[in-house]
Amino acid sequence: MQKTWWKEAIVYQIYPRSFKDANGDGIGDLRGILEKLDYVASLGVDVVWLSPHFKSPNVDNGYDISDYLDIMDEFGTMEDFDAVLAGLHERGIKLIIDLVVNHSSDQHPWFQAARTAKDNPYRDYYIWRPPVNGQTPNDWRAFFAGSAWELDETTGEYYLHLFTKEQPDLNWENPKLRHEVYKAMRFWLDKGVDGFRMDVITFISKDQTYPPYPETRFGDFTVYANGPRVHEFLHEMNREVLSKYDCMTVGESFGVTAEQALSYVGEGRHELQTIYHFDHVTVRNPHTFVNGWQDFNLQELKAIFYKWDRALGDQGWNTMYFGNHDNPRVISRFGDPAHHKASGKMIATLLLTQRATPYLYQGDEIGMTNCPFDAIEEFNDVEVLNNYKEFVEEKGADDAAYLANANIIARDHARTPMQWNTAPQAGFTTGMPWLKINPNYTEINVEAALADPDSIFHYYRQLIALRKANPALTYGANEDILPEHPQVWAYTRTFEGVCFLVVVNFGKTTQALPLDLSGYTLSLSNLNEGTPHTLAPYESRIYQRS
Ligand code: TEU
Ligand code: CA
Q1: How many domains are contained in the chain?
Q2: What dihedral do alpha carbons 71, 75, 76, 80 form, nearest 10°?
Q3: Which member of 143, 207, 259, 423 has the greatest number of CB atoms within 10 A?
């Protein structure tokens, strides 16, 4: 196993729209990020992943790109981008950007041209099929409700869109399209960008027979992943672009199992360096708005972690995250807002002590929680709104139940603006914010976190420093030493003779800690209870063996 910078990196994800608004239009922007670079650097992170900053009509907040070589109007200019990149580099932080090339925006000039005529030179940049018996070519459904096919009146053919109809899928079968993508990648790498997070990259190759949706897997979108040519395309991308730069890659890999993971990231594969799976964030709860919430237990979660650790630990490399812009807030999802500080720090402990590159999402370092949304109109996300239209308005699902469910899982929880201080609009903007501000900003905000030496923020800083000072926390073998325990997670991380022991109480009841702690010295803990063989709710400790 080789040591590399991207294995040792700690990543901080910025969702630009919600980070900081510098010009008062209510939308976060690049100048806003620039103002906050010292804050980001103070955490001790090594890499920033920036969610899409490209030109976009924002049907899916930038995940619908209309120009891969230009900046979103609301976010600023190319000069602003260059300033952010330079500012990060000055602080020793690398930048990875979001490569969204499974689909483009329907406003992209390629699509605008493609839809004008069947013989347009850009037609084949997208996926077109004639109607079958006057109907859609097959029964594929889109992620954000409805059919995955949209009829285009001009030419009487359907185009494929796995997400919204404003996000037509690009046709990777076409080598011209592939080379346009590689050109765009080189443009940003040549500017000095340090790599890519690749949006739904495991969907780029489609089964050219467009088979019917497997009946037994209805609603299971993993069927679109791992198409027949996906490895060939990634291999080509690696050969044409990635291999020529010292850059970092992380492929969002919805639908890739632990058993399949090495085929993407194995060291001899020359495809991607890492992938980002969904198994733990969807445990018992595939992302749907119509099923109620299902509780899960720690054993299920541990089983997922160790499955992935065994699959990639020695021959590839894992990633680790609890939250991002597509998930609810981590304390609401995996912790407990009633144990705000303790559970926020417990999640941090788990995040930063795995054999994997950790991804921290903006706001989680100050313990932001889910936002109460009182009515459907308060949501912004196309996923919540389109599914509402289909299931509640068209199919008669229960309105209140839908709203309750969205209050648990909606992506908007992660997208409410960053809470900087107690000023109006949480110091995010001087104007009207594009999305509701969580009313708890008066207590949960950056200024308060910085002023409190016992805050979640300062605990993240300590953890990050501990991880960086001790390669065993990055590279060490991970052994679950209480595999049967339903609420305590205890594991060792061992590397080159150094051994750490991590113990975590993943729940709201006090637990006995049935472990012999002699020979261990406490490095860091989230509470100061001083009772070694009892764990308070969400208590977490890291020991080092002397
Ligand atoms: O997400 C891909 C993806 O699988 C999501 O649709 C996910 O299942 C869903 O968000 C669960 O809520 C990526 C981006 O991260 C997401 O923001 C985009 O909307 C999507 O691709 C389309 O680009
Ligand atoms: Ca702005």
Answers
A1: 2
A2: -90
A3: 143
